[in-house]
């Protein structure tokens, strides 16, 4: 990788809303970080091209690991709960949210479903990569906040849940 390539990557990174990116090639590892200090552990997100897999990490908090009264955090996505047990699973990245693995398949989850930790609740497509969004705890789906195949921003409320 040439210096000009790295400079071009830096310029492109500066123009995005992404705050942290780690890029690994055969003999090169680059880390781009806009934040001077982090209060939240980053959540890994896979992004790839034809040659490489690039985890892009975003500072979000885990739906089941964030204590909203103390502010203690872990690693995934949280919203603004209306009660101690209600919460939201947020989009960890910019992309397109899908309720189902393919247009003809049934949705991953529906309102009223009780799901286990690690169960997929949907997919966010980013840069032609399908990123599964998983529940970080056992929970009940109260509502799906985003229509299928809708563009979402980082932090968009995807699913309203009740922690079990």
From TrEMBL:
Gene3D superfamilies named among the record's database cross-references: 2.40.50.100
Keywords: Biotin, Fatty acid biosynthesis, Fatty acid metabolism, Lipid biosynthesis, Lipid metabolism
Purpose: This protein is a component of the acetyl coenzyme A carboxylase complex; first, biotin carboxylase catalyzes the carboxylation of the carrier protein and then the transcarboxylase transfers the carboxyl group to form malonyl-CoA.
Family annotation (InterPro entries): AcCoA_biotinCC, Biotin_Carboxyl_Carrier/Decarb, Biotin_lipoyl, Single_hybrid_motif
Classification via CDD domains: biotinyl_domain (cd06850)
A GO BP annotation: fatty acid biosynthetic process
GO molecular function: acetyl-CoA carboxylase activity
Annotated Lipoyl-binding domain residues: 75-162
Pfam families xref list: Biotin_lipoyl
Species name: Helicobacter mehlei
SUPFAM superfamilies noted in UniProt: Single hybrid motif (SSF51230)
Pathway assigned in UniProt: Lipid metabolism; fatty acid biosynthesis
Gene Ontology CC terms, in alphabetical order: acetyl-CoA carboxylase complex
Protein name, entry field: Biotin carboxyl carrier protein of acetyl-CoA carboxylase
């Amino acid at each position: 990788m040439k210096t000009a390539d790295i400079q071009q990557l830096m310029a492109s990174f500066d123009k995005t809303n992404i705050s942290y990116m780690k890029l690994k090639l055969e003999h090169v590892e680059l880390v781009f970080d806009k934040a001077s200090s982090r209060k939240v552990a980053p959540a890994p997100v896979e992004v790839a091209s034809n040659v490489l897999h690039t985890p892009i990490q975003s500072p979000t908090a885990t739906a089941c690991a964030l204590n909203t009264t103390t502010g203690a955090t872990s690693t995934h996505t949280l919203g603004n709960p209306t009660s101690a047990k209600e919460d939201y699973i947020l989009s960890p990245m910019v992309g397109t949210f899908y309720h189902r693995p393919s247009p003809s398949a049934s949705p991953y989850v529906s309102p009223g479903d009780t799901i286990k930790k690690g169960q997929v609740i949907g997919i966010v497509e980013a840069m032609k990569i399908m990123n599964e969004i998983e529940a970080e705890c056992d929970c009940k789906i109260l509502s799906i906040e985003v229509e299928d195949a809708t563009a979402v921003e980082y932090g968009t409320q995807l699913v309203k849940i009740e922690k079990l």
